[in-house]
Write a structure and sequence with these properties.
The structure holds 2 protein chains of 2 kinds. Chain A is mainly alpha-helical. Chain A is built from 12 helices and 2 strands. Chain A has helices spanning 2-32, 39-56, 61-84, 95-118, 142-164, 166-176, 178-183, 188-210, 222-235, 240-260, 264-267, 271-285, and strands at 132-135, 138-141. Chain B has 2 domains: 3-153 and 294-369, Response regulator (Rossmann fold); 156-286 and 378-397, 3-Layer(aba) Sandwich (Rossmann fold). Chain B has 13 helices and 14 strands. Chain B is globular and about 70 Å long. The chains are: A mainly alpha, B alpha/beta.
Chain lengths: 299, 411
Amino acid sequence: MDYFALLAINGLVIGLIYALMAAGLTLIFSVLKVVNFGHGTLYMLGGYASYYAITYLGVPPPAGVVLAMVALFAFGVVFERLVLHPMYTNKVERKDEYAIIVTFGLTVLLLNLGIVVFGPFSKSPPPFLAGALIAGPLIITYDRLIAAIAAIVLLSALSWFLARTSLGQALDAVSQSRESAAVIGINPRRMYTVAFGLGSALAAGAGALIAPIFALSPNMGELPAVQAFIIIVLGGMGSVGGSIVGGILLGVVEGLGVGFFPDPNRALAYTEAFGALLLVFTLLVRPTGLFGRPHARLE
Amino acid sequence: MDKGRRDFVRGAGLVGLGVAASGPFPSRAWAAEPIPLGWVGPLSPPGNYSGGQEMKWAVQLKADEINKAGGILDRPIEVFYEDTKGQPAEGSAAAVRLITQNHVAALFGEFHSSVALAEIDVAHKYGVPWIGTDVWADQITALHYPEVFRVSPANSLIYLKVANWIADRGFKHVAILAENSDFGQGGAKVVADIYKQRGVDHNVVTVELNQQDFTPALLRLMNASPRPDLLEMVVAGQAQYQIVKQACQLGFAPTAKTAMIGSSGLLQKEVWEVDGECAKNLLVVDVAMPKAHWNDQARAFVENFQKRYGRAPTGVAMEAYDTLGVLAAGIAKAGSTDGKAIIKALESIHYTGVHGSYSFSDKTDPPWAYHQFMDVPFMVIQYTEMNQTPEAAAILFPKDWATTDKILPEK
């Protein structure tokens, strides 16, 4: 039982970080109807932004996370205005393909630029708090605990923002129907910019929170990006709540899968397979994901 | 244009202008065409690009030195660099490009065994010599391709000795974390076979290199009965940092109850930035000689590398530096850039590099010994202080070089 709890708690913590990453991805998708293939690189940039803020500006690690989120919000806004904006005009005919190409291009560009700018060698910011919380058989490092708490705070704040503020409701309105939202005076293009900025900031938050737990490298976002895609499909495309539940579920299932798979020698190598199996079973039962809405497509 | 080529062009231009002293080939104006050579290795993901970059730097240094000293056969060398990304398909395509488009006299380099296996098929098909820098899978030389030589260890050459040393040290329950590759699975098999012979209880846990969270697997090992007294990583590059950090944070290893041993990725200084105190007491298989045994060439290489790139080279960089040295000596001995002539010359070469005196075995028993450099220097070291360099770490094996016989922390 202790062993089960240990694995479940570890999975929960990692799942919350996954959820944070996936919430940004799903926010962008729900409002812009764009699958952001560059989300993993935003996560990577967030990690490095936090590292440089802590190392060169001398700010404490939590402030590094905040600064990384602010910086990537700005990056997201600029990227959306400069690169994605033509998609909403008549300049671009094949909008879906355009979105795939530019966001995928963002990944290739930033990944390779990352190796040049940040260097090929791993980096790591200092821990939020060194040591581990040991309660009987349960062991959890303070870094993981703090990251999990921060993820809960950020996800709660996001949920509150989307449900209780006029800007959040405007984003929700655009996610449901761009034209109907425009009729009641909401500027959809402005909402696209806000959504992409927020999504980028959430990815950056996840990257900055994970940086002291793992390590920074230019390709650190590759696997989390894949997991984020699994999560948004699992939770339901476009559902922020679904991505939170999906992230936690994925983290726990992967952790328990590795811990209890009958062949201990192959269990770790099958980590991603456990997530894929979870996705397949969920889609068999609920083809739109756990909380998905049908008909999510750019108008 | 890559840096090596740029340097060459710049150098040639300066020679033409009569400013010979400031170019890379200061002593002469080259009348002949350069000898094209092809370097292969990972410079971007999913390959181990940090190891690849270090190898490339060392090769650039050696190439400049060779040209400065007059080149080979009165011709400068020109190295074409191909990023193989740690992927066999990329390695194969890169080898074809280098041979058919750049017309290289030989191929050399590589960090990933799986990629090397793809490259040597191409080298064999075209009859072009290939020298492996840091590729350990036995299969590479065991295929007995006449074109294929290796300056790095084979898994069986090193891990057999390490496994016997581990058994001699009295470890009873070993958990082997092995990457899912020819190197990882091959190395794990070598050590597992020895443990079986020596009665050491062991199990192999397969690791995917792109994984980041090893905690569930480490928790499983930590809760196993009996708990492993050694965690052995047969994993290349910086993926080991994560394993070390997470094992340490759980209080699992390296501790008095469970020691931890890894390989060359842990020799880079970043191990201290990422793992901090957790890297203390870590055992590392270091393919290098103790500093006290370095020759003049090794000392000069380390100094020049440090000066040019602002960081100390690891054993992998030394291997890369020597690979080009061996190849250049082979071409000089052959007196030609013909593939068959180079192969013949390499088969009887005696070249002194930073890792000692190189020659290649012609034995086919064991199969991996063919065209293998058999006297690869290596040692098992242990970091005993924070921010310690590998040269300053305690040496536990081999006995002749050992500075201590105590593995810390003591049980």
